Amino acid sequence: MADIRRTIIAAVARNGTIGREGDMPWRLSSDLKRFKALTLGKPVVMGRKTYDSIGKPLPGRPNVVISRQAAIDHPAISMAHSLPEAIDAAERLALETAADEICIIGGGQIYAQAINLADRLCITHVEADLDGDASFPEINPDLWQAGETIAVPAGERDSYPTRYVVYDRRRG
Questions:
Q1: Which terminus, N or C, of the chain has the lesser number of Cβ atoms within 10 Å?
Q2: Which family does it belong to (predicted)?
Q3: Which of 52, 56, 58 lies closest to 19, judged by CA?
């Protein structure tokens, strides 16, 4: 299943913060629109805490939730007990739905495990240092090549300006 790209999607503060008390420490309406466009129709992989913070399956895409404990009894959710199991399930779902990519959408523990398995990072860099209890792993420039970069000023419904960057894994 090597032809299915594994993409991490995250919004990350300058100091690496991605979450605080089960929520994001910002409001970024413009970034939520981009997130929806990037993930619609593609399997999304998330940890249980991320699923709980969203509160329901994301519509229009197969949802795979990783939890070591109880299962979520919902017809739109596929459960997995580990990241490798979740990636396998998401890649099978991608093949079934003719998607060419799976999207890994959090949280911190999942990102820390997945960054070594990903092909691409779609990162919204939030132009602020924020307190939080969940963080994103360091993006090593020896392993990741920054490509498309878009500066996004704070819109009417955004807490901060952002910089959207697509990183591809360096080969060889």
A1: C
A2: Belongs to the dihydrofolate reductase family.
A3: 52
pTM over 0.85: yes
21 Rama class: left (phi>0) / alpha (psi -120 to 50) / beta? left
State the Cα–Cα distance between residues 142 and 111, nearest whole angstrom: 18
* C-alpha torsion 125→15→55→41, nearest 10: 30
Q: Which of 42, 8, 4, 26 is nearest to 118 (CA)?
A: 8
Q: How far apart, in whole angstroms, are the C-alpha atoms of residue 127 and residue 154?
A: 10
CA 39 – CA 45 distance, rounded (Å)? 11
pLDDT over threshold 90, residue 121: yes
Cα–Cα distance measured from residue 4 to residue 112, given in angstroms and rounded to the nearest whole number: 20
* CATH of region 5-169: 3.40.430.10
Give the tokens for residue 51.
């699923």
